[in-house]
Structure prediction request, 313 residues.
Amino acid sequence: MNEELRERLETYHEEDDYESIVEAVLEIPEEERDYEMVSHLGRALNNLERYEEALEQFHAVREEGKDDPLWHYRTGLALYYLGRYDEAQREFTIADFLEPGDEDTLEFLQWIREKKGPERAPEPVLASDSAARLEEAVVPAEPTAWGEPDGGPNAAGFWDDLHPDAERYVMEPPSDERVASVEEALVFKLPAAYVSLMKTHNGGIPRNRLFVPEGAEDQAVVISAILGIGREKDHSLCGSLGSRFLMEREGYPEFGVIIAECPGDSGVVMLDYRESDNDGEPEVVHVAKGRPGKITRLAPDFDSFIQGLVRQP
Prediction:
């Protein structure tokens, strides 16, 4: 967005002239609106009490806004005034996690607690220390059924198939031939627990996406999706935006396989075969984006990593 338009929109906002903000942004073709423009538009629609329209705008830039506390706050505000308190509580809690102690955010959380009743609503997270915040903010995962015949989790409880981005990842379960073909292309044998999971539900977005390494709460990692076994989806192990592509484009190390994406520029989760042969049991690590990116050990194996995922605040 150019500086002239930015200053004009801010002036309209200071003058409480929200209709002019809406008119100014809507004059710009939709395909030319950037994240900042849409944020101004959504904020103005909220101020005009046009909450459904505001939500549409915020959802249009969901991917860019997921690490922005203002996006979560403004989305939460729209949801709150639409009476969707559970969804609003989630957005305000994430906003508080990303930007601790904002008075407006905490006030909305208090109002939601009062509307829902003390037994249903969790207390807002107020701790300032990052490790303490993680301990308080993590909501224990709902029990996951690990009773499938092949040892994988119950797909209905583990995956969030209603997430708007789910279809970018989910594929048909792979055949043994497909698994072997992908392993040959990757030059690594995939862990049995990972293959088992993909045979029940091949790629997708888990309900629980936060992993806190034992004894290292300050190095917690959030994933956005797990890549499936295949080639047909861009976001799959051998897809056009998969493991090999990310290594070549972003400079991630080639000691294993990228199995999970993380939000924004926060890196990836990889299977690390350095302490095992290419057909051994790899550790699971997080690799920060950069050349070289910081490597953090998360779990001794894929099964431990999956079972350690918990609900985001």
